[in-house]
């Protein structure tokens, strides 16, 4: 890797590039032009070139990028060319849906532990994984080599779940609850909220309608 200081926005775009490249690979593409990759990812080609420059020289002038090579290089540089063991805390509606989703394992994020504090849920089996008492989290993290925690507890229990995970030695957390977590500086937290996307789409539609209304008012003014 050329530079250690890769901006967070670049890392998010790289994750998107990998996802698009993997789809292209599944569809049988061996080479992709920077224009097609850029269009599919809704960024401009110069942004892609700038993002990839952190890792070295890619692409052949007039040909584009070799799909497999690019996937390998990005994944290798970002450390996602291996399996990351994960634990999920809070086996309710959302937790169960995530545990049943096969893509996590397929993409290298293997949920190997499912934890809950509800005695009625402990012992239940979801997708072949037994729900275990949260008190056993610390031992399980060490035994199973868990590095990432997913929090799917109610909002008022999320900090407690985070504390358990951090105490157990987990370094990264994906928090699906709407709680803002307080964590030490060396713990990485990502917040996942589907509603941000709903807001974003609703705002965009509203803005379009507002512009249309302004446009039709302007036309009406010209007619007067
Ligand atoms: N990110 C999103 O877009 C999104 C979408 C839906 C729900 N959510 C959030 O996900 C969370 C879960 O929602 P749900 O509908 O699955 O709730 P749920 O009530 O069905 O499940 C929560 C589970 O957490 C367990 N739990 C509570 N405290 C715990 C603790 N300290 N340790 C371990 N387990 C604990 C409960 O026993 C329960 O099984 C909520 O915070 C909700 O707001 C987020």
From TrEMBL:
Gene3D superfamilies: NAD(P)-binding Rossmann-like Domain (3.40.50.720), Winged helix-like DNA-binding domain superfamily/Winged helix DNA-binding domain (1.10.10.10)
Positions that bind NAD(+): 90-95
Keyword Transcription regulation: yes
Top-level lineage group: Bacteria
InterPro entries recorded: CoA-bd, NAD(P)-bd_dom_sf, Rex_actinobacterial-type, Rex_DNA-bd_C_dom, Tscrpt_rep_Rex, WH-like_DNA-bd_sf, WH_DNA-bd_sf
Keywords, comma-separated and alphabetical: Cytoplasm, DNA-binding, NAD, Repressor, Transcription, Transcription regulation
An annotated Gene Ontology molecular function: DNA-binding transcription factor activity
HAMAP family assigned: Rex (MF_01131)
Protein name (record): Redox-sensing transcriptional repressor Rex
Organism: Solidesulfovibrio aerotolerans
